[in-house]
Design goal:
two-stranded antiparallel sheet; single chain; globular; alpha/beta; 42% helix
Length: 316
Amino acid sequence: MISRREYLKFSLAAGTALAVKPGLLWSEAVASSLITRPVPSSGELLPVIGLGSSATFSQLAGSEESAELRAVLATLVEQGGTVFDTAPSYGASEEVAGSFAQELGLTAKIFWATKVNVASRGGGAADPQAARAQIASSFEKLRKPVIDLIQVHNLGDVPIQLGILKELKQDGRIRYLGVTTTFPPQYEQLVQVMRDEPLDFIGIDYAIDNRVMEQTVLPLAQDRGIGVLVYLPFGRTRLWDRVRGHDVPEWAAEFDAHSWAQFFLKFVVAHPAVTAATPATSNAKHMADNMGAAMGRLPDEAMRQRMIAFVESLPG
């Protein structure tokens, strides 16, 4: 195992090198220790930590300081990560990420996951032409002839929009399809869609203090062979507020967590149903720290319960 100090030292050096030579590879020693999970429908292995593009990433993508996101994408790939999750509704995230990835020569090294969700027509069904246009725009922005994963965002008119994704998958334009939601009122619908449709993935909210998905959704994903992307593993800013002023417990080193980000992420990806967590960040150092959760050991179930008890003991 490598220490957090050694990891971050290597990460900063690697980031500098990648800025000069984008084709450089992550050291074999570190890459070989990355934790991966198979996509249930194919067996393809994905690193358990990726990058999301909502929140601060989205905000920076639409500003004059968007160039900082170049380093974030470079760090993701240099640290061995591949999964990048975005959506048309995340402002300029798709376009900025697609442009920087192309400039850095990283487009083919990234597992691109985006979404589709167009406004319904007068509160009724979604406009199929508008949905197809939105998807076509994603292809253009991401600069990919084949997109790895497109999901119906927030369960928007699943019959029409998932139907379009099925056509695209059959035609070889996308590799995987799925649905997402982070809204509790939609959880029951999510379960029904999981039971009725041939999904490759779902995208959900899940965190150490938000474990509702453990009751039905995650076990069902295992039973149905559906991959799981986890959004909001930090509870947006909720968990950061809770641990402010508190140190990571020393016993977290038993599962190689050396920061709060790694503590929270390792809890999430330790669940066997989870394929990858995609926390959003616009900071390259935070991206490197997040990738540390894909290295070393993961907590077992007894340790996960200890982690829950510790977080719940903190003033909330």
